[in-house]
Amino acid sequence: MEEAVRTAGLVKVYEGKETIEALKSVDLSINRGELFTLLGPNGAGKTTFLRIISTQLMPTKGEVRVLGHDVVTEADEVRKHIAVVPQDVMAYANFTPWEYSYYFSRLRGMSKHETEAASAKALKAVGLWDLRDRVCGSLSGGEKKRAIIALALASNADVLMLDEPTSGLDAVARRDVWAVLRELVEQGKTILLTTHIMEEAEILSDRLVIINKGQIVANGTLEEIKSLTKDKFRVIMENNSHEPNQLQNTNHSIRLGNKQIVYVKNESEALELVGAALKKGVKAEAAMVTLEDVFVKLVGRSEEN
Amino acid sequence: MNLKVVRDAFIIASLKSIPDLKRQPSMLILMGLISAMPLFFILVFGGKMSYGLIGAMIGAVSFIGLSAAIQDITWDRYVKIREMIVAMPVHPVSYAMGVAIAPLVFSSLGMLFFLLIALWQGFIPLFSVGWVIVSVLLCWAVLSGVGFIISTYLQKANTYTLSNLSNILGIGLLFIPPVYYPEELLGAYSWVAMIFPTSNAASLIRVYSGFLELPQEVLIVRWLILTVTLFVSIVAVALKSKWREA
Q: Does the predicted model carry a pTM greater than 0.90?
């Protein structure tokens, strides 16, 4: 499969009052036409990674290629093929969504006609066509965010790099954006996404990577990442009153006030635990582990290490 | 410099001026009014209107030229629009030119208005209009350069601090040196007018309008000061600024 992004031994060190190694030899390959998600706790190095591959930040060491072009020596070529939505980007209050898409597309060298067509398509895709002439100052947070995403879409770039594009959006607006992103992937675009919303990563990603403290701790499809932990099921119990011996076979449990999450290896163990809990009058329900469970476990483990 | 660099500069200038102008056309009047304020005092206290109008022309472009170069760049960094532009096929020179040209759109109407009054009143002869425009534009370019130096060298300063600094500097450069009043008022210190780009440009306009006589070599030195200041500011910015962060 053709690579959209490839990094080999990517290191980023911020020199200052204290030296911070934000990325420690990151090797990563992102295929063309996939939606790839970067997960990690705050300060893990996700934004640094995104800023390096989008030619905003110089790497300290290592090789970084986007669509075969080196981001250090061929930055101009890389910039022709990418569009970026930075984290916490804010919309100019006096701009309309149409003006955003229009001016930024013109800056990409598109003709007036191409710009108008691309802007219209992008605004329709994010559901802002009817609001295209309203100033951003009068739009909701979600609409403003979609206006910025639309300008990235209007660019017709092959690779979109979106740094937490749905943060601050309500569930409905978030799902609108998800639909747009998946549609773009189906059209052959490559999307690189960072997010803190595990559900988003779970639903959208073709492949994902978990970064912690500048290092990759997991890389693969959702199933591959989930397979990294022994625990496949979890049981949530309320009014914790079960006996300790019922937990002896479990790998891990978390207490949250009067609730307890118990992780178990398989379905039969989970059902057994639920049955035992119900017998004692404790509310309990079993479910498969989520990406969030795996994330917490992997990141927690690398924290301990 | 290729055509795309120039084209992109004008797109950025349009992006930074037309939407604001469409929504807030009163900004045009406001920009003119700020530079026209001293005219009121000049009229009341019987000062020379010709000096006031020349000062107003300089004021129309210089204040906004300086503050835009500082505030726009700082604001773009703050709202992360700059990050988006860096990751686009846009040359940094286009961005800098665009940021510098945008305020001219706001101030050009005021400047033209004062120029027409000065022409109508006979303060500026028609054949000097070219020199007047060149002087005003050079002053704008120098002050934009100063603005770029500040926004480049004080990158880590607080947005509000930079905003206040640009306003203080803009007002100071406009009202302290002899921009609205004749440099002769400073007596032995009239040479001070050469140091400040605003008063230097005002003096050049006065020379070409026949209000001030300067020896040819002094005139050349004054043009040189403005041009060299512009060149130095461009070099200073080019040395320090980084389109892509290290």
A: no
